[in-house]
Amino acid sequence: MSGTVSAVSSSGTYSFTKPNRESIRLLAGLGVEGDVHAGVTVKHRFRMKRDASQPNLRQVHLIHEELFEEVRGAGFEVAAGELGENVTTRGIDLLGLPVGTRLRLGDEAVVEVTGLRNPCAQIDTFRQGLMKQVVGRDADGSVRFKSGIMGVVLAGGVVRPGDGIGIVLPEGPHRPLEIV
């Protein structure tokens, strides 16, 4: 299995959307260089209020570009970086990956998948009604979050649009993604 990086984004301030960049640098154990969410401990404001000493399992946010096509069908225009992701991918079923999957981004960077991103109310502030599109239900009726996955940086490196993404699944049994 493999895919492609279609866009990279980062922001040094707390903002819902992140501007696209020509490249981003991933730093081992920290996240995206210069991004507000980079760090060893949690940097998301809600989680910091609860316990700022928690390990940062959300150093890198990845979203599949196919989600933008899906929501476009429901009348929503969303582009790379607008949902706050750092890496926009194409050709990978991100939501179907198990915990512990390693993604090689470009030549050097490696991100280990930690879990699902939980969609927040800011999604509806960005585009009213969009939250309903990124939170769905599976055939069995269980809630399915579609707003991307989170990971930690195991090996640093520069990541650019057009870079390949290699996938290494963990040894089984595989654990499905849960919100981190």
From TrEMBL:
It comes from the Bacteria. InterPro entries: MoCF_Sase_C (IPR005302), MOSC_domain (IPR052716), Pyrv_Knase-like_insert_dom_sf (IPR011037). GO terms for molecular function: catalytic activity; molybdenum ion binding; pyridoxal phosphate binding. This is Uncharacterized protein.
